[in-house]
Amino acid sequence: MGEEELQQLIEGCKNQDRKCQKMLYKALYGFAMGICLRYAGNRYEASEIMNTGFFKAMTNMHKYDPAKPFKAWLGRIMMNTSIDYYRANLKVAYTEELDQADHIGECETVSSKLGYDELLKLVQKLPEAYRTVFNLFAIDGYTHEEIGEMLGINPGTSKSNLHKARQKLQKMLLSTSGTGVGEIRHSSIVAIRQTDVTDIYFNKGFRP
Amino acid sequence: MKSTEEEGLDNIFKQRLKEPDSAAEYRESDWDAFEQMLDGEEKKRPVILWLRIAGGIAAALLLVFGWLYMQTDNATKPAKQNMAVSPAVKDTANAVTITTPPIVNNTDNVTPAQDNKSGGGEHQITVGSAKTPYAVKGGHILAMSKHQPKGRSAILSAHTFRHDTAVLVNDNDVNNKSTVTLAAISNNKIDAYGINHVIDFSELKNDTVVSATDISTTIKGIQINKHRPQYAIAVLAASNINGVNSFKEAEVGADVGLQFSVSVSKFTFTTGAVYAKTPYLTPFSSYHTAYPFVVNPVNVSADCRVLDIPLNIAYQVYSKSGNKFSVGSGLSSYIMLKENYRYNYATPYTYGPQGVNIVNQNQHFLGVLNLNTTYQRRLSSKLSLDIQPYLKIPLTDIGYSRVKLQTAGVAFGLSWNLNSLAKP
Predict the structure, then answer these.
(1) Set of chain B residues whose Cβ sits within 8 Å of the Cβ of A18
(2) Quick one: A176 and A106 in the same domain?
(3) CA distance B319 to chain A (A)
(4) Which residues in chain B have Cβ-Cβ distances shorter than 8 Å to A198?
(5) Residues of chain A contacting B35 with CB distance shorter than 8 Å
(6) What residue of A is the nearest CA neighbor of B358?
(7) What is the pLDDT of residues B9-61, one digit of tens each?
(8) ipTM of this predicted complex?
(9) Are residues A109 and A58 both part of a single domain?
(10) Which A-chain residues 68-107 have CB contacts (< 8 A) with chain B?
């Protein structure tokens, strides 16, 4: 889609022209979904996040600065919406012990053979707190300080979660090379600072 | 610092996931869901917009009418505002002067002055008895009661007595029979009395009571700033009920606050800060969260601490014998200080979070419509008792849970008239 056409659609969206809204939605569906899919746990959640993101974009279109690339603006909205969607779970730390990863070289070889769908599946299998930090750091290029600020966690927690995310990915990659994409189980949650999970405990201490 | 291996791993994911080689397949069902969101917003927006616009128009109309009312009253005042006065009690704020010689006609009837809306001119009060009180309002002279006061009181029973700018009253028990007291009463005190009320002269300070030695008086004019703003502060405490969408499963809360008000004529503008404890119970269907529950709770118990900053306007609809009623409306801003949500599951052994705490994350500026009515009982020249039933209707979704939280309650308070502190 040309820049001029895009600007016309944006103008139409500002006037709440349903036709323009649908055209813009369709045109940027793949782009937006690509972001949401790697932050989300599955396609269903990704769709929900993406629609919420599009909704924010459509209802705040007047705030968009035409001097800047629209896709970057929309991408940022999608990312923020993804973070908001999982915000309740982003400050958790998982307690399971991970094996020391000493097969990096091998993982690299394996991962280099995998395509988008396979790698996406691996990322989606990460717990939300790890997945978000991994996305923000490794793929979107934010620093731990920035991530800490965005998620309301310490930069140290961000580093720790990134490290664990990598370990899990490595483990899954190794497992993939043998038996396909591996299943990872994680144990329970412990809480963190003000927003959310300060008081998230599991009901009565019972687990199914 | 990243190790080379880590960097390599990151890069692989970055290259493949940042720029996917195959875009996600478009699904019409996603658009349908999105369209529903858009439709919902379009339906919702006009209602909220309407309420806000209506509130704005109402406030603007009140201001305009208030201003017009004041302008009209000012136009009816005599242009010249001076009278000879007993020197000891001259009041600059409520300048009242009396000139002599009197014109005496032997009648108890009031000789109404000409309608002097054009302003200026003399108004003659002609009295035949020292026992007859009169009131003067703007360009009109009002008939007063013939009741004889006891002690230091005089009964004003003039049916026309309203926001009068002055009253001519008998005060025989204090002075000689041949003496008439002219009492010029500033707006705040008149406000406090009204029709058929006993005026205690001990409350009328020297600045508002002027003694004339002659029973017959020509009054050239009276100047009283009856629209001088009246300032008051009030301490309020309230008990209320809170519910989501309705009051079917209302929870009882309480709030306490400080309010500052400015009254001009019959209008009162109020603002302040109210700290509210707001508990409520909401079905999970009304609760909004991004958290993907495996098993949804049945309902959610919320306990919020809210700082409520109201901006209200009230109109006085009744005032008599120290009792006043007014109706008001306005908008409140909610600053959500603390929000605590507890999830209640159908069975106690459900696996899921028990609750969530939110601190200082949500603010709703002018997001709540206030409707109230106030009964005010004057206790003294400085103190009044306020009783205010109120209803708060959300114009936006409130709090982290984004619920339509409504509140109804009754506030009790004590008002302190700040003008009483001012020196004449």
Answers:
(1) 35, 38
(2) yes
(3) 48
(4) 356-357
(5) 18, 22
(6) A195
(7) 888 888 878 777 677 788 888 898 898 888 876 665 655 566 666 666 666 66
(8) 0.75
(9) no
(10) 84-89, 104-105, 107
Does A121 share its domain with A177? yes
A67 and A114 in a common domain: no
Determine if the pTM surpasses 0.95. no
pLDDT in tens, B259-293: 999 988 889 999 999 999 999 999 988 888 766 67
Contacts of residue A87 in chain B, CB cutoff 8 Å? 290
Could you tell me the fold of the domain covering B229-421? Porin (2.40.160)
Q: CATH number for the domain including A15?
A: 1.10.1740.10
Residue that terminates a domain, selected from A85, A117, A152: A85
3-state secondary structure chain B: CCCHHHHHHHHHHHHHHHCCCCCCCCCHHHHHHHHHHHHHHHHHHHHHHHHHHHHHHHHHHHHHHHHHHHHHHHHHCCCCCCCCCCHHHCCCCCCECCECCCCCCCCCCCCCCCCCCCCCCCEEECCCCCCCCEEEECCEEEECCCCCCCCCEEEECCCCCCCCCEEEEECCCCCCCCCEEEECCCHHHHHHHCCCEEEECCCCCCCCEEEECCCCEEECCECCCCCCCEEEEEEEEEEEEEEECCCCCCEEEEEEEEEEEEEECCEEEEEEEEEEEEEEEEEHHHCCCCCCCCCCCCEEEEEEEEEEEEEEEEEEEEEECCEEEEEEEEEEEEEEEEEEEEEECCCCCCCCECEEEEEEEEEEEEEEEEEEEEEEEECCCCEEEEEEEEEEEECCCECCCCECEEEEEEEEEEEEEHHHHCCC
Of A18, A59, A196, the CB nearest to B356: A196
Measured in angstroms, the CA of A176 and the nearest CA of chain B are apart by 15
> Quick check: A123 and B41 CB within 8 A?
no
Residue of A nearest to B352 (CA): A202
Residues A129, A198: one domain? Answer: yes
